[in-house]
Aminotransferase class I/II-fold pyridoxal phosphate-dependent enzyme
Amino acid sequence: MTFVDLRSDTLTMPTEGMRRAMSEAELGDDVFGEDPTVNRLQRRAAELMGKEDALFVASGTMGNLLGVVSLARSGEEVITDAHSHLFLAEGAGASALGGIQLRQVQTETGVMSADQVRTAIRPRDDVHEPLTAAVCVENTHNRHGGVVWPLAELRAVGQTTRRSGLALHMDGARLFNAAVALGVSAETIAAEADTVTFCVSKGLGAPVGSVLCGPTEVIDRARRWRKMIGGGWREAGGLAAAGLWALEHGIGQLAVDHANARTLAEGLAEMDGLSVDLDRVQTNIVFFRPTAIPAADFAESCRQRGVLGAAGRDGRIRFVTHLGVEAADIQYALQVCGEVLGQPAAV
């Protein structure tokens, strides 16, 4: 049976070239700052983001946590979208470990307007309210279907935070997907943020890791926080080598992933019994809603035929394209979805 796993782009496996780079990596103790491969990855990441410094961490969740607790103090508040990964999918780490409150902004697509951010900032002269310390934006936005922040909106929010004396953190887990979709450099997108984290373990194809980038002063604080939460690692050069390989060879794959996602979304949209918002399919994520049967039942029927997706409690199913998914796999996934609905796929 054909097997197509569309649950997440975290499912990518290292290529042979990446495995060779990992096995040949020069190693040292990163807690002492002596792993040359980790140091190379951090320098490269900082260069790509246009930042002073960078810190290699185990996950995007860790990168976001370290970014937020290094920009805000216990008792302060960070503004973020109500459906952000930071708020919904990181175990309440900012509040549990940093004592930081998250203020939610309701949006249609995960893109907060400058006016919304301005309204959410607390007055500094009211002792009843927490102090606003920072704003967090997510680009691309996972739960809104891989939506990309328009540069104009991002720049407006950046200008608002600077004028208000706030820091701006960017959850750029899929930042390179945004860059490819907009046809600009990652540095152009990251320019508005004080700190930015991006994953090498999603579409770029590395097995583990994210990088937090920002000013040296902030990265120094983040490094201390990383140690406190048990995130210091020793001979991590093998993983860093995978990250370096991914940055050199993996970015070009993202356009293919986007094209596959568009083909998938358009095919699903042709089927009776499925609802797809094609305007939100801008990168490698496709959300759709079965209208005739429960999402969990639809996903289970697909799984039995070899196509895996992620069914959410909100009645939607998520498919994510990645380097492990080829054009033929997309056609098979559409065929299976059509079979589950009792109709041929329009492929």
In short: The chain has two domains: 4-9+249-341, 16-248.
